[in-house]
Design goal:
Elements (H helix, E strand, L loop, with lengths): L9 E6 L5 H11 L5 E8 L5 H9 L3 E3 L8 H14 L4 E4 L8 H6 L4 E5 L11 H8 L3 E8 L9 E8 L6 H24 L3 E4 L2 E4 L2
Parallel strand pairs: 1-2, 1-4, 2-3, 4-5
Antiparallel strand pairs: 5-6, 6-7, 8-9
Helix pairs in contact: 1-2, 1-6, 5-6
Bound molecules: 5-O-phosphono-beta-D-ribofuranosylamine.
């Protein structure tokens, strides 16, 4: 008889700067058993982030590393890197983390750090992606989960989901429609990672059936 070896549950840590609805979507999927992982911690650069309350409610340890407490970006990044190491995570999820990570951090966690971006990359990287999409006049928008590399929103793409841009959309209406898809895409990407189903071949990420 074939022996089934159960997966070791992956340790998942999060970085978030604000509302934390994507963070919530992932911890809900962990709690329901959909993702074979354990949420081991949340790091935030913003002491007022609503994500903190969500973490406390979900029993996930929080580390606040307030950017304002540091004299330089280098000092902040050093503290951030130390906190990230402390969690001993298999995967880091950037769930609305609003700063660009320095190259030391990107290098150390390469291949095990993912980000969610509210556009169909490579279109509209950076800030205000939904506004960029409206202003450009595209008819289809969406979200992308990608591995983090040294660029801004440039890493290999794991999952994309699209939505239509409707005639009367403004930035808020489009952002809301995209957000609903983000809440599907991010937990799915985390699940695939935790099931060892992502195979990275250069820029392409293949998903093992
Ligand atoms: C999301 O739109 C995400 O794609 C972007 O920042 C927003 C964060 O929203 N990176 P939330 O904090 O997850 O609610």
């Amino acid at each position: 008889m074939e022996q089934v070896i159960p997966l070791r549950k992956k340790r998942i840590a999060f970085l978030a700067s604000g509302r934390g609805s994507n963070f919530q979507a992932v911890i809900d999927a962990i709690a329901s058993g959909e993702i074979p992982g354990i949420g081991v911690g949340l790091i935030t650069d913003n002491p007022r982030a609503y994500a903190i309350e969500r973490a406390e409610h979900g029993g996930i340890p929080v580390r606040v590393i307030d950017y304002a407490d540091f004299a330089s970006k280098a000092a902040y990044e050093e503290a951030l890197l130390a906190a990230m190491r402390d969690f001993q995570a298999d995967l880091f999820v950037l769930a609305g983390y609003m700063r660009i990570l320095g190259s030391d951090i990107v290098r150390e966690f390469s291949g095990r750090m993912i980000n969610i971006h509210p556009a169909l990359l490579p279109a509209f990287p950076g800030l205000h992606a939904q506004r960029q999409a409206i202003e450009y006049g595209v008819k289809v928008a969406g979200c992308t989960v990608h591995l983090v590399d040294d660029g801004t929103d440039t890493g290999p793409i794991v999952i994309q989901r699209c939505v239509p841009v409707l005639e009367d959309d403004d930035e808020t209406a489009l952002a809301e429609r995209i957000l609903a898809e983000e809440h599907r895409a991010l937990p799915l990407a985390v699940k695939l990672f935790c099931e060892d189903r992502l195979i990275v071949e250069g820029r392409r990420v293949r998903i093992r059936p």
